[in-house]
Design brief:
The protein is of the alpha/beta class. The protein has one domain: 3-Layer(aba) Sandwich (Rossmann fold), CATH 3.40.50. 26% of the residues lie in helices and 22% in strands. It is built from 9 helices and 7 strands; from the N terminus they run ααααβαβαββααβαββ. Strand 1, helix 5 and strand 2 form a beta-alpha-beta unit.
Length: 227
């Protein structure tokens, strides 16, 4: 399923408005190559789950263009939340004036997206959502429901030893085989299992935060909604 990056993708990655703190990470994160696996294009609809500071958000927004929609899918503060609490949406809200196709959406299984999308994307988040032995069955089913028929679900994360299951979540790693098992249980099939972010020198014994930044062994799993 590997394919070369489209001009829309390469132009978005080359956008001079991207902050240097992001662009210096491109050699390790390979955004153009990873996004190219999904086949998204101007006019597509994407939900980015837990977008963090917006590294991929800026790129997605430019790829999708004015006819596309990017949902920043993350926990939103309750309407009656006291002031001063953590607002995970704050970094994305700061981008929205310059990236008008971004919309906020509440990451809550009881609150569906306003519409079905072509792609759900999450990068370096699955292990955190899974920590504490959390059951991600409802989350993965929520993703299923958010996708159009044939839609894609991309999961990128720090790899643990294959077969280790949930053992090394405390190292900020997750077993790719566990991710496959859990996501496929929601009805998905594996569409691509890419070595783009593989780093054989990482032996998985250290926490991913203790490995040189950008050099942790990462898996790139693309799932497709079937049926």
């Amino acid at each position: 399923m590997a394919q070369s990056a489209s001009k829309a993708i390469t132009d978005a990655v080359a956008d001079k408005a991207r902050p240097e703190a992001d662009t210096v990470r491109d050699a390790d994160r390979k955004p153009a190559e990873c996004i190219a696996l999904t086949g998204i294009h101007p006019g597509s609809k994407v939900a980015e789950m837990l977008p963090g500071g917006g590294y991929f958000t800026r790129i997605f927004s430019k790829v999708l263009g004015p006819q596309g929609t990017l949902y920043a899918w993350l926990p939103l503060p309750a309407p009656n939340a006291p002031p001063g609490g953590r607002d995970m949406s704050a970094p994305i809200k700061a981008l929205m004036a310059d990236y008008p196709n971004i919309k906020l959406a509440n990451l809550d299984p009881s609150t569906p997206l306003p519409e079905q999308v072509d792609l759900v994307w999450t990068s370096l988040n699955y292990h955190d959502m899974r920590r504490g032995n959390a059951d991600l069955g409802p989350t993965n089913k929520m993703v299923w429901n958010a996708l159009k028929p044939g839609g894609l679900y991309m999961v990128i994360d720090h790899a643990a030893v294959k077969g280790s299951g949930a053992r090394d979540l405390g190292l900020h790693r997750v077993d790719p085989e566990l991710v496959k098992q859990e996501v496929m249980a929601a009805g998905f099939k594996v569409a691509a299992d890419s070595d783009l972010l593989k780093h054989p020198a990482d032996d998985h014994t250290k926490g991913s935060h203790d490995v040189e930044r950008g050099k942790s062994d990462q898996f790139v799993l693309l799932f497709q909604k079937v049926g």
